[in-house]
Write a structure and sequence with these properties.
By secondary structure, this protein is α+β, with helices and mostly antiparallel strands. It contains six helices and 14 strands. It has a single domain (about 5-220), classed as 5'-Nucleotidase, C-terminal domain (5'-nucleotidase,  domain 2, Alpha-Beta Complex), CATH 3.90.780. It is about 25% helix and about 25% strand. Helix 2 crosses helix 6 (about 200-210). It is globular and about 45 Å long.
């Protein structure tokens, strides 16, 4: 688990007034961004991508992006461009979809991503819109201690709109044990009505959220 100050410092470099526009396509990164441990823990760079996926559909409350969607990339302190951020994406052309999932399904998905923790797992989920507390010493399928959606506790019976890349929505990485194609509510589309890709979502997010205040949060917290 990383300290919240590291996450905030890194994300602030891209999303807040702390970002210095050296050029319309250049950002001044004031702390390291990385996907180094994306398969075992929250990644500050992957969190930006997850935020972009959630922002791509205004109604989405939660976003999931599996660790398998990321390359291992580290962006050092200094200047960076959106293209540098996009190097973290293993599958840029994946389209996005929104699913209607119960709170119980959301919890099951988080448990699935934690199934072999602390081993590296392609199914580990990077998240947006939620905060998760995990007991890594608990038995498999009982490691998620609590989940909050925004400021509210997760309701097992409530329906949530969850955005994610289409392969994950189709049940990749054994997520078909948790949801079905019938849970897909809609495709995420761009201004022209064409399916929005992961790359497009990230570019749009970086272009339009440079002055959004950052919340001081840790999304995936492991109890010690």
């Amino acid at each position: 688990m990383r300290s919240s100050s590291r996450v905030v410092a890194a994300v602030c470099a891209l999303l807040t007034s702390g970002v210095a526009a050296v050029h319309p396509q250049t950002l001044q990164v004031t702390a390291e961004l990385t996907t180094r441990n994306v398969r075992t823990e929250e990644s500050n760079l992957a969190s930006i991508v997850a935020d972009a996926v959630r922002a791509a559909d205004p109604a989405a409350e939660i976003a999931f992006v599996a660790a398998s969607s990321f390359n291992e990339v580290t962006i050092p302190k200094g200047s960076a461009t959106p293209d540098d951020i996009l190097k973290a994406l293993a599958f840029r052309t994946d389209s996005l979809q929104v699913l209607k999932l119960t709170g119980a399904q959301v919890r099951q998905a988080l448990e699935h991503g934690l199934a072999i923790h602390p081993q590296r797992h392609s199914a580990f989920l990077q998240v947006s819109g939620i905060t998760v507390t995990v007991d890594p010493s608990a038995p498999r399928d009982r490691r998620v201690v609590s989940v909050r959606v925004g400021s509210a506790p997760l309701s097992e019976t409530k329906i949530y709109l969850v955005a994610m890349p289409a392969p994950l929505a189709s049940g990749a990485l054994n997520y078909d044990r948790i949801w079905r194609r019938s849970d897909v509510e809609r495709d995420v589309t761009g201004p022209t009505g064409e399916p929005m890709t992961l790359e497009e979502a990230v570019r749009r997010y970086l272009a339009s959220h440079r002055t959004v205040p950052v919340r001081n949060e840790e999304r995936i917290v492991f109890r010690k």
